[in-house]
Each structure stands twice: as structure tokens, then as C-alpha cells.
Specification:
about 450 residues, five-stranded mixed beta barrel, 13 helices, 18 strands, binds 4-amino-1,4-dioxobutan-2-aminium adenosine-5'-monophosphate, binds magnesium ion
């Protein structure tokens, strides 16, 4: 008999129907001449109760199985007399596909997120991580759907690259040179003898290649893994994370903010419409008020303030921050959270940052002190999006590269787009895990990535 997903069994079948389910036992309970197994197959949050009686030939074996065992069940769906569930399955045939010993770590009790992180190979079978990873999958689809509906081209930018887009020196090296004895030239490692004939690393952003495609296809986006060797052990930074980077030709900073706003609202609405059961769990157990927050967000118009205004507001706040606030210094996450949580009480775009703290590719404003950049800040998470209008004027771009210590020759191909058919364009990067933290209320980035990579941790 063909397997039916529990999600489907709970939604589309009717009483009396004979069905086949396969899944893992979340909890088990035995009574006099009866046993109850809560079976879960990950297709939805809910488990389905399977009722087993001594009529089954292997009943004696079945009452001895452990939590976590994998079963194949044939039975009839009936209305459940028990509170809190509509259906249960009267088993007619149960096969043990894989029993589980009593040392299975996910016994029925509350486990800390820290403990679950230490068993990342098993945590997808828990309620919390089931909900997180179903949401992650649903959101990935929604992201593609949003851009597809708007006619954006999906482009795969390279993972191995020879340029550090953000210029922050946070690249992981990719090399096949012998680390014990690399070839040298006047004392320095001779990268020309490396696999690619030059120094390469894992990409920190697909933006520069994305811009090349935007000057051919007008509207494009990337969605893929990015890597940063920042040694910051925070709850919001991962060494490997996923980023969505749209790039629009013929667009300015205002267009960029509107796209970001529409995008976020679309994803929130999608989540509310398609992930109700999992969201209800997050609302109940992870962040009280999450649903109200998301419903408000789906309708909200985001506020905007310039960096200079943000600095004035922070200075006037009377708050004592750990890091000083001064025009020209980067905003720290405590400042970002104060702005979005206390000053605005919702998402806010901060725009027009000082030229000295932003990447070389951002468009210089007429004041020559600021660039046409934007960060979107949201409560609890802080920066979720970073973007800008790009510098499309060749001489200005060349000057900015030199000021930032980047040799223009090293990015000759990037500069070529400004030489032939240059156009105003803009884009942004949304950190996928930061988005998930915002939508689920989970407070640590390690808990929204299947197998997180952070300083000191690449197990599993
Ligand atoms: O602000 P960032 O560095 O911007 C860029 O990479 C641009 N090239 C994007 C563009 O304009 N196309 O990074 C964008 C977003 C951040 O706002 C944040 O959400 C996320 O990526 N992010 C990280 N997420 C997890 N761990 C890290 N270490 C992250 N660094 C950035
Ligand atoms: Mg940023």
C-alpha cells in the first residue's frame, strides 16, 4: 500500500478510510491491552496517534519498542475520543522498520536549545526544529516565487572567487597548495602556482557578478550560500549563511527601498498564509505576540531616516550605550536595536551613511560625505538587509576604489560595465537566516541553519 503523508492524512481523508503511514515514534504510552504511539513524519507539526491492540500478531514486540523507533502502519482513520486531536488510527498492521534503544537522546521532555545544538543530527526530529526547517523550506520557495512573479532572472553566481566584494578581508582561502611547503617567490607565497593561478577564496557576496547580469537582463537576483571568516561569536553571525541579492538596472535608492519593503511584506504574508501551524507554535512557545507582529507588518509602511538623523536621535536618547555614538562611526547592533525597537517600534530604513564606513561600490551623494546606502533594521534582530544604489560613474568609482585600497586593475571586468552602457542601478542583500530569526522569534542564528558553521564549529 502506498504511503500517505500525515499532513495529507489529517487534511484530506475521511473517517473509515484505510491508509498507510510511515514515521518515527515521538511518544509512546501503554495501558491495559492497548498502546498509543504518536507518529510523526515531518510533513506537518502534528503527530498522529496510532492505537495498537493485542489483536495484532506482533503486539508483544510492539509494546517494547523505544521512543524514536521508525514504524510502518496500516490502519483505519477514526474520530478520536481523546481531547486535543480530531483523528487517530486504529492499527491493523504495524511493522517495525527500525527500533530505537533507550539511550535515544530525544526522550519526551523539554530539551534546551544548547543541548539540541549538540545533537544537530537528531534535532530535526524535535517539534521546534521541525517547525524551523519546514518554515525555511517554505520561505525558500516563496522567495523564488516573488521574483518569478516580477520577472527577475535567477542567476547563479560563483562560490569560488578571486575578489572580496565587501573589501572587509573576511574571505576563506581556497587553495590546493601544500600548506607545509607552499611555493614561494621572494619570500611570499606564489599564488600563481595555485590551482586557479591566483589567490582565491569563498565568496562573501554575489553582488559584483549580479551587477554584470543586471546590465544585461535588467532585473536579476541571486540566492545562495555566502561565507565570511569574521571571528565574531555573536548570535547573529554565521561563517556560512544564505543571502538573497536582487539587482535592478534603471533603479535608484528609493526604488531599492520599495523593492525591499514589498519583498519583506510578501514573505510575511506568505508565511502567515502557508505556515499557520508552525507559526502558532512559535507564537506560543518562542516569541509571545509573534503573530500580531507579523500581521501588523504585512500591512505596515516602513519608516525611513537618514544616518545623520539616526545619530542625532541616538545622541539625544540619554541612553548609555557600550559603544560611543558619533557621526562617521558605524552603528553597532545595540544602536540598531535601539532605533528599531525604541525609536520607531518597527522596521526602519537607515539611509545615506558616511562614505568612510561603507563599501567602495556605493554611489557617492552630492554632499561627497555620504553614499546612497540603506540598511533595513528590524526589532530583535537588527540589520536584516544591506543595500545601496551603485556608483555608475567610472571616474568616481575608480577614485573610490583607490581610496578604499582596491587596485582598479583587479576588477577591470567590473569597471567595464561602467565603460560600455553604464546605467543607474541598485540592489540589496537579505540575510536569509536573519529573516528566519525574525519570522520565528528564534534568537540564535545557529538555530535556524540545519548544520551551522561558526568559529570553532563545523561538526555534522
Ligand atoms: O550588509 P551586507 O554585508 O551586504 C552585502 O553583502 C551586499 N553585497 C549586499 C548587496 O547590496 N547586494 O550583507 C547583507 C546581509 C546583512 O544585512 C545580513 O542580513 C546578512 O547579509 N549577513 C549575515 N548573516 C549571517 N551571518 C553573517 N556573518 C552575515 N553577514 C551579513
Ligand atoms: Mg551590512
Amino acid at each position: 500500500m502506498e504511503r500517505m503523508a500525515i499532513h495529507k492524512a489529517l487534511g484530506e481523508t475521511s473517517a473509515g478510510e484505510l491508509i498507510c503511514l510511515k514515521g518515527w515514534v515521538r511518544t509512546l504510552r501503554t495501558g491495559k491491552d492497548v498502546a498509543f504511539f504518536a507518529l510523526n513524519d515531518g510533513s506537518c507539526f502534528a503527530s498522529l496517534q496510532v492505537v495498537v491492540t493485542p489483536q495484532l500478531p506482533n503486539y508483544v514486540e510492539l509494546v517494547k519498542i523505544g521512543t524514536g523507533a521508525c514504524l510502518s502502519v496500516q490502519g483505519v482513520l477514526v474520530e478520536s475520543p481523546a481531547a486535543g486531536q480530531r483523528w487517530e488510527v486504529q492499527a491493523q498492521k504495524v511493522e517495525v522498520l527500525g527500533d530505537a534503544d533507550s539511550d535515544y537522546p530525544l526522550q519526551k521532555k523539554r530539551h534546551s536549545l544548547e543541548f539540541l545544538r549538540s545533537i544537530a543530527h537528531l534535532r530535526p526530529r524535535s517539534n521546534t526544529f521541525g517547525a524551523v526547517f519546514r518554515l525555511r523550506s517554505a520561505l525558500s520557495f516563496a522567495i523564488h516565487r516573488f521574483f518569478h512573479e516580477r520577472g527577475f532572472l535567477y542567476v547563479h553566481t560563483p562560490i569560488i572567487t578571486a575578489n572580496d566584494c565587501e573589501g572587509a578581508g573576511e574571505m576563506f582561502r581556497v587553495t590546493t597548495l601544500d600548506s607545509e611547503n607552499p611555493p614561494r617567490n621572494s619570500g611570499y607565497i606564489d599564488w600563481s602556482q595555485d590551482f586557479f593561478g591566483e589567490r582565491t577564496g569563498l565568496t562573501v557576496s554575489g553582488q559584483l557578478q549580479g551587477e554584470l547580469f543586471a546590465t544585461a537582463f535588467s532585473d536579476i537576483y541571486t540566492f545562495g550560500p555566502t561565507f565570511r571568516a569574521e571571528n565574531s561569536n555573536t548570535s547573529r553571525h554565521a561563517a556560512e549563511f544564505w543571502m538573497i541579492e536582487p539587482e535592478m538596472a534603471f533603479a535608484d535608492l528609493e526604488d531599492d527601498c520599495r523593492l525591499a519593503e514589498d519583498f519583506l511584506r510578501y514573505l510575511v504574508t506568505y508565511t502567515l498564509q502557508h505556515c499557520g501551524e508552525d507559526l502558532a507554535f512559535f507564537n506560543e512557545r518562542v516569541e509571545k505576540g509573534l503573530l500580531d507582529k507579523l500581521q501588523a507588518l504585512a500591512k505596515a509602511r516602513f519608516e525611513t531616516m537618514t544616518y545623520s538623523e539616526a545619530v542625532s536621535r541616538l545622541q539625544a536618547s540619554g541612553e548609555s550605550f557600550q559603544f560611543p555614538v558619533a557621526w562617521g562611526r558605524d552603528l553597532q547592533s545595540e544602536h540598531e536595536r535601539y532605533l528599531t525597537e525604541k525609536v520607531v517600534g518597527g522596521p526602519v530604513f537607515v539611509t545615506d551613511y558616511p562614505v568612510g564606513i561603507k563599501a567602495f561600490y556605493m554611489r557617492l551623494n552630492n554632499d561627497e560625505r555620504t553614499v546612497a546606502a540603506m540598511d533595513l533594521l528590524v526589532p530583535r534582530v537588527g540589520e536584516i538587509i544591506g543595500g545601496s544604489q551603485r556608483e555608475e560613474r567610472l571616474p568616481v568609482l575608480q577614485r573610490r576604489m583607490e581610496e578604499s585600497g582596491i587596485a582598479p586593475e583587479s576588477l577591470w571586468w567590473y569597471l567595464d560595465t561602467r565603460r560600455w552602457g553604464s546605467c543607474p542601478h541598485a540592489g540589496f542583500g537579505l540575510g536569509f537566516e536573519r529573516l528566519l530569526m525574525y519570522l520565528t522569534g528564534m534568537e540564535n542564528i545557529r538555530d535556524v541553519i540545519p548544520f551551522p558553521r561558526t568559529p570553532g564549529n563545523a561538526r555534522f
